[in-house]
Model the fold of this input.
Amino acid sequence: EGVHASSTRGQAFRVYRPTLSDYILEMPRGAQVIYPKDIGPILMMADIGPGMKVFESGVGSGALSMGMLRAGATIVGYEIREDFAARAQKNVSKFLGASALERYDVQIRDSYEEIEERGVDRVVLDLPEPWNVVPHLPSVLRAGGIFLSYSPSITQVTQVRTVLNRTGFSELTTTEVLNRSWHIDGKAVRPDHRMVAHTGFLTTARLLNS
Done:
């Protein structure tokens, strides 16, 4: 890592192994990915760690899955599109290795209809209508387990929070993550003119012990 290389046109390069953040931004994708600026907070807000059993729906291209798998979680994912599911598994295998697939069970199923999993520690959703999943969760998520949904629109947030409130969830929070870098060059110190601003809202809740 860090070796120098040059192109046939004499351009100089320094070569490093890509980070997970690098890979997510450049990997093959079918669906729009959740960006690294949100994946980090999701891992903390949903308290994802080794041995956690996570139910994920809306797997997409597997960006968030990779973050949770690398944190040590075991994932059961529902995805309605076979091409997205195949792409996600391929991306996971390419970056994390084939052994990661042992903790990554992606099924072609619709979480709006039903969820067979029981006793999961965390539920993480990236869906257009996450409120359609919430009524299933009291029998899916263990007491005290954490729910997290990623939603681009605030109207999605208000709908899912309404259903969470009447389904036995507490400790509801909604957060937006903004990412602003800085230009630092000697005494010229200022925020960059451009920033990665809104991508989505992160809504979390905990299931009460009934």
About this structure: The mean pLDDT is 94. Residues 82-96 form the longest helix (15 residues). The two ends are 53 Å apart (CA to CA). The first strand starts at residue 3 and ends at 6.
